[in-house]
Amino acid sequence: MNLQEDPIKPGEGHRQRLRDRFQAQGMDALTDTEVIELLLTFGTPRSDCRPSAEEAMQRFKTLPEVLDAHPTALEKVKGMGPKNIFALQFIQGVARRYLRQRIQKKNYVTSSKDVADYLIHALRSLRREVFMAVYLDASHAVIDSEILSEGTINVNTVYPRELIKAALSRNAAALVIAHNHPSGSLQPSAQDEQLTRTLFLMCSFMNINLLDHLIIGAGETVYSFADQGQMAAVRNDCAALRSRLA
């Protein structure tokens, strides 16, 4: 009986070299195009995915933009089919879950960059405004995070009662709130500032400390009310108001 060897898959030698390079030297040894190529092979392992990866990079410019692209936009890339798109979306979902779970139980003060990384990944590609809360315990360890509102973010769409209810249900003693600016601008609006003051005051009546308000802009950019000194100003204003009400 004659035994025939399995035919070599198209581009298998090239892909194996990419895998070997990654295993030996890590992610920095691969270009963004090569990363996309390997991800696409998870969906269609018998296809040459290099042309599709190159076209995707030409069309979307960066690795994050490729991963964040809508399926209808990805379908316009020649050779990109449902299985390839699934592979990209799946790895995006895995990354988001990994970043979310990585921050849980970590102290926010010492892990604020990790929290920002998660929020950037979760919000940067959205075309609508989304309001999120990160719940912290008394030692400022992260308990949980969730999206509370979608659409234009202002004092009329973010209800303090719902935020406080969600915080109390998790026994949270502190909060970090965040929302994205789909326009890419990091400049807080008057509504953003009013929302921060309103939420800080309402939370303070329930002994919940609002530590920061983060705005996620384009790319990897973040605006922090605390870093800009605005949370200290809000804290002072609310303390003065509470003393007058007492």
Q: How would you describe the overall organization of this protein?
A:
By secondary structure, the chain is α+β, with helices and mostly antiparallel strands. It contains ten helices and five strands, in the order H-H-H-H-H-H-H-E-E-H-E-H-E-E-H. The chain has two domains: 85 residues, no CATH class; 141 residues, Cytidine Deaminase, domain 2 (3-Layer(aba) Sandwich). Helix 2 crosses helix 3 and helix 9 crosses helix 10. The N terminus is likely disordered.
Which descriptors apply to this entry?
246 residues, alpha+beta, Cytidine Deaminase, domain 2, metal ion binding, hydrolase
* Sequence stretches where pLDDT stays below 50 over 5 or more residues: 1-8
Shape: elongated
Question: CATH homologous superfamily of the largest domain, by name?
Answer: Cytidine Deaminase, domain 2
CATH topology of the largest domain: Cytidine Deaminase, domain 2
- Placed side by side, the strands forming the largest sheet appear as 2-1-3-4-5
Structural class: alpha+beta
Task: Spell out the blueprint of helices and strands.
Elements: H1 12-25, H2 32-43, H3 50-60, H4 63-68, H5 71-74, H6 82-103, H7 108-123, E1 130-136, E2 142-150, H8 160-169, E3 174-180, H9 190-205, E4 209-216, E5 222-224, H10 230-245
Parallel strand pairs: 3-4
Antiparallel strand pairs: 1-2, 1-3, 4-5
Family: Belongs to the UPF0758 family.
Protein name: DNA repair protein RadC
Domain MPN: 108-231
